[in-house]
Amino acid sequence: MFDIATELKKVFTEDKLRLTLTDRYAMAGDAGFYYLLPRAVVVPVNEDDIKKLFSFSRQHAIPLTFRTGGTSLSGQSITDGILVDLGKHWRGIFPQENGKTIRVQPGAIGAHVNHQLRSYAMKIGPDPASISAAMMGGILSNNSSGMCCGVAHNSYHTLRSVRFMLPDGNVYDTAVPEDYDRFAKDNALLYDGIAKLQQRISANRTLVEKIRNKYRIKNTVGYSINAFIDYEHPLDVFAHLLIGGEGTLAFISEAVLNTIPDKPYKTTGLLFFENPVVAADAIPYLKSTDADALELMDRPALHSVEDADYTPAMIKGLPPGTTAILCEYQGTSAEEVQAKIDNAFAVINALPLLSRLEFSTNAYEQAKLWKMRKGMYPSVAAVRAKGTTAMLEDVAVPLENLGKAVTDLQLLFTKYGYTNAIIFGHAKEGNLHFLVTQPVNKQEEIDVFAAFNDELAEIIIHKYDGSLKAEHGTGRQIAPYVKDEWGEDAYNVMRELKKLVDPGNLLNPGVIINEDAKCHLKNMKTMPVVEEEVDRCVECGYCENRCPSRNYTLTPRQRIQIRRSLHRLEAEGNKVDHDILKKEYKFSGMDTCAVDGMCATDCPVSINTGDLIKRLRRENHSGFANKTALQVARNFSLVERMVKLALRTGNMVNQVAGKHAMKKITRGIKTVVRDFPLWTDSITKPVRIKTTAVAVPDVVYFPSCITRMMGADKEDDMPVSDVVKMLCERAGVSLFIADHTTGVCCGQLFSSKGFIPAYKHTVNETINKLWSWSQEGKVPVLMDVTSCTHSLQTSAQYLTEENRKRFEKLVFIDSIDFAADYLLPRLHINQQKNRIVFHPVCTTYKMNLVQKLQKIGDACAVKADIPFLSGCCGMAGDRGFYYPGLTASATKDEASEVNGRYEGFYSSGKTCEMALSEATKQNYQSVFYLLKDTTDK
Ligand SMILES: Cc1cc2nc3c(=O)[nH]c(=O)nc-3n(C[C@H](O)[C@H](O)[C@H](O)COP(=O)(O)OP(=O)(O)OC[C@H]3O[C@@H](n4cnc5c(N)ncnc54)[C@H](O)[C@@H]3O)c2cc1C
């Protein structure tokens, strides 16, 4: 019997295969509302692997679907065949010609590409809202665009050249002149077929006219058949058909894009109109003023964010029907922007405005307006009813029909009872997004969705001559409407094209061309009601790139998707798969989540998957485990002494038996006992904290347990606690360090693992001590590890009533605050370093301390960098000792960016410093060492 796993193993090494149920269920959904379980997931690393995949697919008649960021919304990056995951490799980004062009590979994230272009003041044309998660393979294959790029700067129009592989394994590059003849010779059938289609189209004037018309506005329905009339050589035609081809024609291996200027100067304002028709009628006038962004927001959209702190207060009082346009002018200089807006006022002042919010060049005010605009989708999606799907739609109509289309859409929402539906969008291009929430768990609900879609198509296609998908691609959702929108002639061209390239229909079948008129109603992603965090998730994938376990086990989105899959399997009565998946989830979902919570910062609906995992860990602990943890907490002084003894012994073993001896020994034990912690070369010795007795101190210093246990430094003789003392002496800050700190801890060790009784005990004991050391809250408490500061600052709900009152009076100062506000102003910098780098720990972001860290760096070094790719190191307190693969995968990108080219390496958390030291083979130290080495007083 054919077994796909066995057959794939004959072709690919195991590191390129993902075959467990977890691997497959984690890739069963993208950001859209369709769901297909892949038979296998393959992670190719080069073109040779892709060639093997094409051949495997042909030999066994198993379809292939490429996936990069998986943020597609129309169901084009899922499959029940083999899912080809390109997001792990293929990340090359190479600026060329002084930033005028850029060569990219499919796995490069759009925002990372723009980061590489920043120093040239350039950016790529396509600007999807999802750019921080979407990758170039998807941006090109969906012909993505966004708020400012319009039609002119989308992927199609900014493509310089592309390298691709056909399903027969032949590779062509439009940057290589010889490839044009080679294409004609080696792929004669395709070459001739394209040439014939070209002739057929140019002989049909009505069709040529239709094509020209349809691409005057944004349009991603069907193939980009404008390529047939825009280009002459069949290789160029085919190259441009790949843009928007949604992975149904070939594999894009590399592309070169023309870039556009990134204009840093802006002025932004809000214009209000009585109703959508008046607002839409103003768009052509505003467009004539060379506005860079014109974002329309209807009254329900404004209403959805009117309570947010970033929304101007006036919005609340606006009458029903009011429609706003966020208007922005950009330029390469302040003068250019001023000239633009001066000219624009002549037009704006003549518009029938209800009111307006004056234009501002203040970056903070601008950010608030954009936050309001971008907050609309999450504000509705996050509060949708449990079990419903958030459907983000995307249509475009010619500008003269825009106002009428908004009005018709609003009527359609009323008819279908979509009371919370909102409309917003890139009005400059006639592009409207709208969000409706609809369950698709039962047939009656799917019927409602079907009827709504049909009516929508009628309005957009037939009444207003628009496109059913302006930016998001055809996928499975719009495939049944392609013929309706384009007509028979154009549809036949598309169908024949697909057949020419992929006669076996093995490349992403069902997407763009699908003969099943009901395909958009099949394989819909049901939304079981699971739990608070899971139910809010829209599976957009924005969280994935920041997650430390993204290249090790699962991402936050996948952790949530598997929770949903478990519920679906249970409902289907598939106990076998359910139990296997549940068992696998312990390691991939729970044990290897760093619970850092950084996912919440990128999540449009603010889900902290770390909190979900902590709760699951808590629920999974037996009474016995909780009791044991509580015993450990109660005897933490003893535990601390034992750990110190073990660390001293370990360090002695290394001294006697060689510096990597402990690493080897623990690695050996770990092969037998999986949960055994691994020794790392960055582990340092315990230190003895020297107490100071000051009657009226400026600050009380509470050295964290990790400082006490591993506070010695690899290179510097002075432990961090002594460095703090020394700096305080230099700065004239009087410091109190209590006796008997042994056993006192913020409790993070227990809370991150979900041992709540143990955590409560620990944190309450600590507050007791701090209350006394701080003279009942009169003296602020200095902490030397940022995550411990954050942990204590957020502990209130776990405190007894008495301790909560104390907590309110206590002041905790983190090391970064202390260094920036207490020490830096009182110290003299005498030896500035040349170039240094920071690793901001996760809580630095959560506590808004990044700017202060930068301030310290700017004072102490000529150049202080925060790596663009820095993120959670995956250490999660002690988790990295148990799962070294987690920290290794989490720190890989940051380590390659840092690449040893600095004079100093600093952070503010001992275990994170250890993880980064291990990854970069450099010595990361507390930020206090930076002050010690650069100041003399
Ligand atoms: C909240 C949200 C907002 C969005 N906003 C926008 C927006 O403003 N504008 C916009 O245009 N889109 C938007 N999108 C849609 C989506 O994010 C974009 O289309 C994005 O560019 C897709 O990129 P991806 O890497 O996620 O592609 P994926 O979803 O992984 O793949 C997209 C398609 O590309 C194919 N593909 C990928 N790599 C290759 C390759 N190497 N060769 C051949 N085919 C390949 C896949 O098979 C698939 O068909 C949004 C999505 C979400 C969830």
TrEMBL record:
Keywords: FAD, Flavoprotein, Iron, Iron-sulfur, Metal-binding, Oxidoreductase, Transit peptide. InterPro entries: 4Fe4S_Fe-S-bd, 4Fe4S_Fe_S_CS, FAD-bd_oxidored_4_C, FAD-bd_PCMH, FAD-bd_PCMH-like_sf, FAD-bd_PCMH_sub1, FAD-bd_PCMH_sub2, FAD-linked_Oxase-like_C. Transmembrane segments: none annotated. Residues 526-557 form the 4Fe-4S ferredoxin-type domain. Its EC number is 1.1.2.4. Residues 34-262 form the FAD-binding PCMH-type domain. This is D-lactate dehydrogenase (cytochrome). Pfam families: FAD-oxidase_C, FAD_binding_4, Fer4_8. Its cofactor is FAD. It comes from the Bacteria. Belongs to the FAD-binding oxidoreductase/transferase type 4 family. It comes from Sediminibacterium roseum. It is an enzyme of class 1 (oxidoreductase).
